[in-house]
């Protein structure tokens, strides 16, 4: 059975396993050293104190994860979030990324957020296609934003509005982010 569920601290090892080769062998993430399961566990605790972190659960195994966090620190940005999504190599290209991302977007909409932004290291046609399928549109490129694996990399920025006419009502705290 494939489902999306809230992350737990027990998922930290599987998440570290998905993320490690991305950090080590690609410029998809600008981290230079893969974080340990303990570090991932700390990140889970930090993110889920106010934003959703969801996992793609495939027959009890973590096949991917997606989360949101603050777009910027200043108070006027509090209706906007930045997202990240990572899938295990075995499940990429099967449509499960859209399934997972849609669940995350629904959580954010229900919580009262207005905008979702995502940065995608270029080139990354798979991630770009995922973002298009999830309703994002490209809004700009930060040229040479990061240096990794011996070269400079541009980052394309993507936007997805969550409401046609966003309310200035405070986004609710997600506190565990389960539905």
Tell me what the structure shows:
With 179 residues, this protein is of the alpha+beta class. The chain has one domain: Gcn5-related N-acetyltransferase (GNAT) (Aminopeptidase), CATH 3.40.630. It is 27% helix and 33% strand. The protein contains four helices and seven strands. A seven-stranded mixed β-sheet has the order 1-2-3-4-5-7-6, with helices on both faces. A hairpin with a 2-residue loop joins strand 6 and strand 7. Helix 1 packs across helix 2. The two termini are 18 Å apart. 30% of the residues are buried.
Label the overall shape: globular
Count of individual helical segments: 4
Helix/strand order, N-terminal first: EHHEEEHEHEE
For the biggest β-sheet, the strand order reads 1-2-3-4-5-7-6
Q: What is the end-to-end distance?
A: 18 Å
Question: What is the fourth-level CATH superfamily?
Answer: Gcn5-related N-acetyltransferase (GNAT)
Question: What distinguishing features does this structure have?
Answer:
7 strands; disordered C terminus; 4 helices; Aminopeptidase; globular; 179 residues
Protein topology:
Elements: E1 2-6, H1 12-25, H2 37-47, E2 53-58, E3 61-70, E4 80-87, H3 96-110, E5 115-121, H4 125-133, E6 137-148, E7 151-161
Parallel strand pairs: 4-5
Antiparallel strand pairs: 1-2, 2-3, 3-4, 5-7, 6-7
């Amino acid at each position: 059975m494939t489902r999306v569920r809230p992350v737990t601290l027990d998922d930290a090892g599987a998440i570290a396993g998905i993320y490690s080769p991305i950090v080590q062998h690609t410029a998809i993430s600008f981290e230079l050293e893969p974080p340990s399961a303990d570090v991932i566990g700390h990140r889970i605790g930090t993110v889920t104190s106010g934003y959703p972190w969801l996992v793609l659960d495939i027959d009890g195994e973590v096949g991917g994860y997606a989360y949101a966090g603050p777009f910027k620190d200043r108070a006027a940005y509090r209706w906007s979030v930045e997202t990240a999504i990572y899938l295990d190599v075995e499940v990429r290209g099967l449509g499960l990324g859209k399934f997972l991302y849609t669940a995350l977007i629904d959580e954010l909409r229900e919580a009262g957020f207005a905008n979702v932004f995502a940065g995608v290291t270029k080139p990354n046609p798979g991630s770009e296609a995922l973002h298009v399928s999830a309703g994002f549109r490209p809004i700009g490129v930060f040229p040479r934003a990061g240096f990794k694996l011996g070269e400079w990399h541009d980052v394309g920025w993507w936007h997805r509005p969550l409401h046609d006419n966003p309310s200035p009502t405070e986004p609710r705290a997600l506190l565990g982010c389960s539905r």
